Amino acid sequence: MVSRVPPGRVTTYGDVAAMAGRPGAARAVGNILARAERPGLPYHRVIAAGGALGGYSQLSLKRALLAAEGIEAGPRRIRGFERLRWVSGRVRP
């Protein structure tokens, strides 16, 4: 699911859980991603509910990776989160 998130867009841990057929398993997704080591996956595009940056070993790195894709992050949240949110199979404005 994480590999499907296009550049310049973000999705939440809960969205990933729902897309994987496990709605309500956002915490499990976070735990899995915290241990994941697959090179090339855009882990930085997965954020917490409401546009919060969420857990990430280096928030400054996450901010920089998102900024490189044109996504602006404030101290704690993605600016324009609803506009940038990507959920497979669901059309967003």
Distance between the termini: 21 Å
Outline: globular
What's the architecture, going by CATH?
Answer: Orthogonal Bundle
Low-pLDDT runs of 5+ residues are none
Question: What's the number of structural domains?
Answer: 1
Radius of gyration: 12 Å
> What's the tally of helices?
4
What is the number of beta strands?
Answer: 2
Q: Main β-sheet: number of strands, strand sense, barrel status?
A: 2 strands, parallel
The ordered string of helix (H) and strand (E) elements is EHHEHH
Class by SSE composition: mainly alpha
Fourth CATH level, the homologous superfamily:
Winged helix-like DNA-binding domain superfamily/Winged helix DNA-binding domain
Helix content: 25-40%
Q: Taking strands numbered 1, 2, ... along the chain, how are they ordered across the largest sheet?
A: 1-2
Mean pLDDT across the residues is 90
CATH topology category name: Arc Repressor Mutant, subunit A
What is the C-level CATH assignment? Mainly Alpha
Q: Strand portion, in percent? A: under 5%
Provide a descriptive summary of the structure in words.
With 93 residues, this protein is mainly α. The chain has a single domain, classed as Arc Repressor Mutant, subunit A, CATH 1.10.10. 33% of the residues lie in helices and 4% in strands. Helix 1 (13-19) crosses helix 2 (26-35). The longest helix is centred in the first third of the chain and has 10 residues, at 26-35.
